[in-house]
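anyone seen this seq b4? input:
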Amino acid sequence: MTDQVEKATTTPGQTLGGLFALVPDGKQHYAMIGRIVVAHSTLEFALNSLLAKVFKLDVEEGLILTTHLPWRTRLDALKSWSKLPVVREAIGEKTAALVDQLEKVNRARNDVVHGLFIEEEDSLHILNIKARGQLTTTSKDLSNVTELQKVHDDLIRITWTV
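predicted toks r here
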């Protein structure tokens, strides 16, 4: 375990599966997390609409098929479509680049939404724990809202691309 996880288990706060978590005190942090959630929802709608167009459905039919699909499945469908010969020649590379960007912003969003907030003296960190093949932890300093603002701005930028 990392020092951060060990420290989180001994810091007074709310217990979450044996870990203690602190939520950010600043209203700016809460507001930015909310903005990230809203921006990602907008991006999901744009992706659903794009998939409807790609598969020659009207938006309503597309929403019926895509609304409850996991994010990964939607990206896999778009990536598979981009590899069809007629598509690959025309816009396959652009679509592959778009999928890469979508994967990147979704990872950043997930780190914020599913991360564990830890306060250490005068700083605030978000700890992300993953167990995909091996247990890994990463930590980002969130003492100011700059990192959160970047995630939000990237979500907005990619939404306009979709």
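Confidence is low (pLDDT under 50) at residues 8-16. The longest helix spans residues 85-114. kinda curious what u guys think
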